[in-house]
Description:
- Residues 15-55 form the Regulator of nucleoside diphosphate kinase N-terminal domain.
- One of its GO terms (molecular function) is DNA binding.
- Keywords: Kinase, Transferase.
- By secondary structure, the protein is α/β, with parallel strands linked by helices.
- It has a single domain, classed as Transcription elongation factor, GreA/GreB, C-terminal domain (Chitinase A, domain 3), CATH 3.10.50.30.
- The protein has three helices and seven strands, in the order E-H-H-E-E-E-E-H-E-E.
- It has helices at 24-37, 39-51, 104-109, and strands at residues 18-20, 53-55, 69-75, 81-87, 98-100, 117-121, 127-137.
- It has a five-stranded mixed β-sheet.
- Strand 6 (117-121) and strand 7 form a beta hairpin.
- Helix 1 (24-37) runs antiparallel to helix 2.
- The longest helix is centred in the first third of the chain and has 14 residues, at 24-37.
Amino acid sequence: MVTASSQLPISTRRPKIVISAASLPRLEALAERFLERDPAMAGRLLDELARARIVDQHKMPANVAAIGNVVTYRDRTTGEERTVTLVFPGEADIAHQKVSIMTPIGIALIGLKEGASFYWDTREGERRMLTLVRVASAVSAGVPQGES
């Protein structure tokens, strides 16, 4: 049976993103620091920040992926779902599903709303189609404080 969701066309345009004004300076500084070490990733993050809608922290929608959130995304090709916590590079730990914002998937997820589908280019140059399924705060997702 074909479901309505499998029939939805995927736009080649990038989905809209939202970033909190409180996190913008730290994200910009992070990208600037990475310009020499990993210019491709730094450029990707700066591009995303440049096109983002910036909102006050208290107006940040709860269903938008942000640093510290636990997010679940689905690979539209395989149907596989993965849940990760978005973190700054010093906190990244793939064994505990903590993904750095300075990775292709971290940059692709930041600022997205639940339900958004997007193309994700891996470091190997492979293009994948992913959908952001769920966004939760680390606390509501059961991640102990200080570990998000």
